Amino acid sequence: MSKRQNHREEVFVKILDAAEVEFGLKGYNGASLQHIAERAGLPKPNIIYYFQSKANLYKQVLDQTLMGWNDLFDKATLEDDPAVVLDSFIRVKLKQSFEKGGASRLFAMEVISGALHIGDYLKEELRPWFSSRVELLQAWMDAGKMRQCDPASVIYMIWATTQHYADFEAQVLALSGIESLGDEDLQRIGDTVSSIILAGCGLTLPAKD
Amino acid sequence: MSKRQNHREEVFVKILDAAEVEFGLKGYNGASLQHIAERAGLPKPNIIYYFQSKANLYKQVLDQTLMGWNDLFDKATLEDDPAVVLDSFIRVKLKQSFEKGGASRLFAMEVISGALHIGDYLKEELRPWFSSRVELLQAWMDAGKMRQCDPASVIYMIWATTQHYADFEAQVLALSGIESLGDEDLQRIGDTVSSIILAGCGLTLPAKD
DNA sequence: GTCTATAAGCTGATAGAC
DNA sequence: GTCTATCAGCTTATAGAC
Question: Which stretches hold the DNA-binding feature (chains A, B) (predicted)?
Fold first, then answer.
């Protein structure tokens, strides 16, 4: 690993970080290479030198964003306790929403705009994951472990609610009149969301020792 | 009301409708007057003639979009049954999400981008409404009519979940593998979301006669 | 009131000096 | 590898004929 390569790596990351913020704030069309370059502290043509085109830069930012989003609910099986799994899923997603707001907004912008650049990801990666999780929820319901309801709606509900604090951060802050959400907010919101969804699905967390 | 004025009115509405769709699809920067004009079936300069500038047209579309969004939960008081009010609120918001997807996406885009054009609306109109509804929920909880939890999170949860089907329509369709959501879907989703949130808040709908 | 022609500026991308 | 200068194209907005 030469010094040269280290520097290349640094510039790559610097551009990707700046691009994530700009694309997340303004969408693909609204973000300009000019502003991304300024945010990264580099001249504009360097962006093109490293990433060839705006479309390719956007794709790379998206790829980085989509990796490892649902790494927890993933491994659950029929034997697991749905209350524990869903509570954990909600809290992890909520924490990600607080910590990686830029990535969440970028993804939201892309989907709202028609998901033109991530059609393959949705169909080939997310859809199989989603189908298997719908089946797991249905199996839990059939086994009498949770109340019968539409499993897909349950997943959408968790996604929508947890992402809301990142995607609609501007609205949440304006309505609460504070400048940023802290750890206490994360805790309070997590407790409320988890308790409502669990109780709504007829679930109870096992008592802690 | 002369024929001239009727025609002016028609053109106004035609442009506003076209602008709502374009802004909703591509955001403020992504939408061009060219495409709005084409969608409205008019030459480009007419847009400027009627609306002076792109920024002003955007503002007018937003104003039109923001009117009468929460016209139901609005009138509820401590005496009302929270189960009936929240069930109705959820179903109305969900129906609006299905029917006015473009407006919902436009608003979502604006908030994700930092809510720069609607800061006044959020602080001077939506915030007082939000505060009064948080107080009402808290009063219901204190009166023992519903379970104690964070009232703001309950409202965010209803907003986020119902808007999800409009804002993330592309993802919902890709994951379910269908081409559009129908009335049966609206019914099923409404039943699920309403039952989870009501049960989660310790509420039960009164039996129908 | 409506449209053609065009101005003035920003966009993504390239060429070429260093 | 890095940056200055610049291209061609599209953007919003305007001027002026009809």
Answer: 32-51
